[in-house]
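Report of the visiting student (M.T.), summer placement. My assignment was to run the structure pipeline on a short list of targets and document each run. The first record concerns NAD(P)-dependent oxidoreductase.
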Amino acid sequence: MSHPQAPSLDLRGKTALVTGASKGIGKACALSLASCHAHVITVARSKGDLDTLVAESGGRIEPWAMDVTNPEFLRRIRDLKCLDILVNNVGTNKPMPITEVSEDTLDLMLNLNVRAAFLSAQAAAEVMQRAGAGSIINITSQMGHIGAANRTVYCMTKHAIEGLTKAMAVELAPHGIRVNSVAPTFISTPLTAPMFENPEFYAEVISKIPLARVGNTEEVANAVTYLASDLSSLTTGDSIKVDGGWTAQ
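After the run finished, the structure tokens were exported:
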């Protein structure tokens, strides 16, 4: 008598694509998915950083040195024979008071955090629809659930992607495609390191996290890997907050 196969984190035979993969959260996600035996395509502008990542993965990662805002990137996604997992990670932030936000800064963040994320998910969904299955994971932020001073544009873009996540989940469910987000708190990365050098800022951040510490990239990657796997087969339209309890209060 055969028994049903238990769900697992084994991603053998799956193809994943991770944007913004050269450093920080994206790099951790790529390495985590590769450790679960997925074929991982990593996208970033820096060829050198991607070559380092390939070496760290033992050659299990395929590098695409590309700008996600380049139409050629979207064409390359659509040309894939299969795509099982998209980790929509690329994004940027420029904290400043709302009265100091220039139109160039606004356009930069809307273009990268919202437009590029939408178009990447759109292209991935087309490929996934052909197979009738897939998992799209948008990296958002706890700032996609709350507001914060000096982060008006960032909060706006991350709230937008949380909304996109829900809408895509509803629309794509009949095609067997799940769409979720992972919303981290402040994570120790090359991007945040200069911020934490300010002791007052660091103390303020820690005071708002009940677990009393910032996160690490592997903790975000763990949530991503769960959503990429069949352990999360009934989870769609949701946001996993890897925030140490920040948004619970």
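The first helix runs from residue 24 to 35. The helical segments are 24-35, 47-56, 71-78, 103-131, 152-172, 193-196, 199-207, 217-228. I thank the supervising group for their guidance throughout the placement.
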